[in-house]
Amino acid sequence: MALGRYDYERRYRRRMWTQILKVGVVVAFVLAVALFSYQMGIEQLKGRDASLRDEVNTLSRQRTELELLASQMQHAARTAEAKLAEAEARLQRDVPTGDRARLLQLVTDRLKGGMDANRLGFVIQNAQAQRNCQQPENKRFVIATPLMKSGVRGVGFANGTITVTGEGVSARDGQGNPESWFDPGQPVTIRIIAIGGKENVVTGPLPLHKSVVIDNNEYRFTFAAGSRSFVDVTSDRCPFP
Hints:
A hairpin with a 5-residue loop joins strand 4 and strand 5 (about 180). The chain is an alpha+beta fold. It is rod-shaped, with a radius of gyration of 53 Å. It has three helices and ten strands.
């Protein structure tokens, strides 16, 4: 009986140590797996950290390059704006506009027409802001139309040495029929004729202005719409130049 109990206790202890050993093996295996996984995670984190650091460095470098490029572009833009402002100022200074352009065109046309440059310079040099002009003359005349058969067709100035005439477009009534008087809203043609046949023509809607030089005198005409059929004329005569 003692031998049987001994064998039973031996087998029990053997089974217990076997189970303990199995558990130990499992625990060791689990610990080994966990340690391996932990080490792999550490390596992955190190790799990811290195990758992130490289990416941060790349982005930082790109940001520096972009900031430098933006600074260069701003400098180029300021330089371009300064050059544009300088060009505009030079253009305004060197290229005539308004009255200067009109006078330059007149001078150019006169020179192309054969006028002596010295003569033209003399005229410009001796032109005066204050001029000894005579009292203006005010007259009127009838603008001719296709249906106008009578009336004062022209008017004379400077003791009849200058004749002014004009033609216009017939006005129309409410039914669209042409009338004998001219339409002041439409362009008219004014002819200024000096003795000898020299003619100056001005065309356009009223009022109109025209200056002519005859026998060392400048005649400045202003034409405005008057009463029906008539155009009012004002003429100033001043010494020229």
